[in-house]
Write a structure and sequence with these properties.
With 412 residues, this protein is α+β, with helices and mostly antiparallel strands. Helix content is 30%, strand content 14%.
Length: 412
C-alpha cells in the first residue's frame, strides 16, 4: 500500500501546472426603451439613490437587470404610462410577466404602508385597543390622516383600516409604535427593514412607517411586488383592502362623535375582479401605486413608481398594465419573485466559513490576485507532495490494533 502511495505522489510531481484563462465578459444586452407617455411637468430634484449593486439588480433573474423594458418574446407592446418604473407579476406563481426598470431605485410615498402591514399585521391583535399619544400625530402638516385624537382609543383593526383605506399617516405612527415594542416607532421601522430583507427586497429601506419622505428611503418596482405578495397572503389584508367604508368609533371621553371613512383606491370600484392595493403620492415621489386583480382564476399584481396623474391617474395606469398582463399566456415569464428567506438561507451542505477557510500555515500572501495565487499554490502543493513522500518512506507501520485518536468525530 505504501509503495502505491509513493508511486501516485511521485507521478503528481510530473504533472504540468495549468493556469485557467480568464473568462470572457458577458456581452451587455441592449437597453430597450420603455413605452412612456409624454408628460410636461416640473418635478423637484430627487435624492441620489444608493450605489447600484450588480447582484441586487439580478434578483429574480438576469433579464430583470435592466433600466429599460423587459417583456416575453412575442408579447404585445405594453401600454404607454408615465411611471418611471413598473412591474406586473402573478401573485400565486411568482412569475414576472413584464417590467420597466424593475430594480431601479425610487421613493415610495404611501405604498410604503404595505411594508408596514406585511411586517406587523400578523403580530398585532386586531381587537387590542390602542391609546393615541401626542407623538403619534407628529406628521407632516397637510399630509393624509384618518383624524385620530390625542387620548383617543381605537381598536387595532380600525387603525389598519384607517391606514389602508384613508392612507392615514397618524395610523401608521400608532401601528409602528405598537409593533416596535420597547423601541416604539423606531422599533417598528426596524421591523419593516428586517422583514424587507427576509423577503429579498434588497433595494428597500424604510425611514418612516408611513412613506412620508425621509433621507435614504427607497424601494423598487420589484421590491414592491415582493411586499404586495406578502400582504395578499394575509386574509385580514385581503378583507381590509376591499372594504369600501368603515365607521371610526365615537370618543365619548373626549366628547367627539365618530365618522365614516372611504376607500381611496378607485380600482376596487371600477375594475372587475379588483382585489385592492394602495395609492401613494408625495411631491418628491410623485404618484406611486400597487394594485391586484383576479380574472379566470389568475391573480396578477402591478406596481408602479414615479408616475404623473396625466394622461391617466395612477390606478388607471395600473389597470391598463393589468389588462396587458391578463392578455399574456399563463406560461410566459421574464423572471420570478423570490420566496421569503430564499436569499438569506444557507444550504445545509455548504461548509461554514471556518471550515472553508484555509489553515494559517497554508494561506497565500495577501494582495495576490489573478493567476499569481494559483502558481504560488501549485509550488506550495509540489513542496507538500515532496514532504509527503519523505514521510511515507520513513515513518513506521501502524500496528493492526491501533486507531487514530478522534476518528469518526464530526468537525465543529
Amino acid at each position: 500500500m505504501r509503495n502505491r502511495l509513493l508511486a501516485a505522489a511521485s507521478s503528481v510531481l510530473l504533472l504540468p501546472v495549468v493556469v485557467p484563462a480568464p473568462a470572457a465578459a458577458a456581452p451587455t444586452p441592449a437597453l430597450v426603451p420603455c413605452p412612456r407617455a409624454s408628460v410636461s411637468t416640473s418635478t423637484p430634484s430627487r435624492p441620489s439613490p444608493p450605489p447600484t449593486v450588480a447582484e441586487d439588480q439580478e434578483v429574480g433573474g438576469a433579464a430583470l437587470a435592466t433600466a429599460g423594458l423587459v417583456v416575453p418574446d412575442g408579447a404585445a407592446q405594453p401600454p404607454e404610462v408615465s411611471a418611471s418604473s413598473w412591474l406586473v407579476a402573478d401573485l400565486d406563481t411568482g412569475e414576472v410577466l413584464g417590467a420597466c426598470g424593475p430594480h431601479e431605485y425610487a421613493t415610495p410615498a404611501s405604498v410604503q404602508k404595505l411594508l408596514l402591514t406585511a411586517a406587523l399585521l400578523p403580530d398585532l391583535d386586531p381587537q387590542q385597543v390602542a391609546t393615541v399619544t401626542k407623538e403619534d400625530l407628529d406628521i407632516e402638516p397637510g399630509s393624509s390622516a384618518v383624524g385620530l385624537l390625542v387620548g383617543g382609543q381605537y381598536p387595532v383593526e380600525t387603525l389598519w383600516l384607517g391606514l389602508l383605506m384613508q392612507s392615514g399617516n397618524d395610523a401608521a405612527n400608532v401601528l409602528a409604535r405598537l409593533g416596535g415594542g420597547a423601541e416604539g416607532r423606531a422599533g417598528g421601522v426596524r421591523a419593516m427593514n428586517e422583514f424587507a430583507a427576509e423577503l429579498g427586497a434588497r433595494q428597500t429601506h424604510a425611514v418612516t412607517p408611513s412613506g412620508l419622505d425621509g433621507p435614504g428611503q427607497f424601494t423598487s418596482a420589484y421590491d414592491l411586488a415582493l411586499i404586495a405578495r406578502a400582504c395578499f397572503a394575509e386574509p385580514a389584508f385581503q378583507r381590509y383592502a376591499l372594504t369600501e367604508t368603515h365607521q371610526i368609533p365615537d370618543q365619548e371621553a373626549l366628547g367627539r362623535k365618530g365618522f365614516q371613512i372611504q376607500n381611496g383606491n378607485s380600482l376596487i370600484d371600477h375594475y372587475p375582479g379588483a382585489l385592492g392595493g394602495k395609492t401613494g403620492f408625495t411631491t418628491l415621489a410623485r404618484h406611486t401605486y400597487v394594485g391586484a386583480a383576479e380574472r379566470d382564476g389568475r391573480r396578477l399584481v402591478v406596481t408602479l413608481l414615479g408616475a404623473e396623474a396625466r394622461p391617466l391617474r395612477g390606478w388607471e395606469q395600473g389597470a391598463t398594465l393589468l389588462d396587458w398582463g391578463f392578455a399574456l399566456p399563463r406560461e410566459t415569464s421574464v423572471g420570478r419573485l423570490v420566496e421569503p428567506g430564499e436569499l438569506t438561507a444557507v444550504p445545509a451542505d455548504v461548509p461554514s466559513a471556518a471550515d472553508a477557510r484555509p489553515a494559517a500555515d497554508d494561506s497565500l500572501p495577501e494582495g495576490l490576485t489573478g493567476p499569481g495565487p494559483l502558481l504560488v499554490g501549485a509550488v506550495v502543493g509540489v513542496g507538500g507532495l515532496a514532504a509527503l513522500i519523505v514521510r511515507l518512506a520513513t515513518r513506521p507501520r501502524r500496528g493492526p490494533g491501533r486507531r487514530r485518536r478522534g476518528r469518526g468525530r464530526r468537525r465543529a
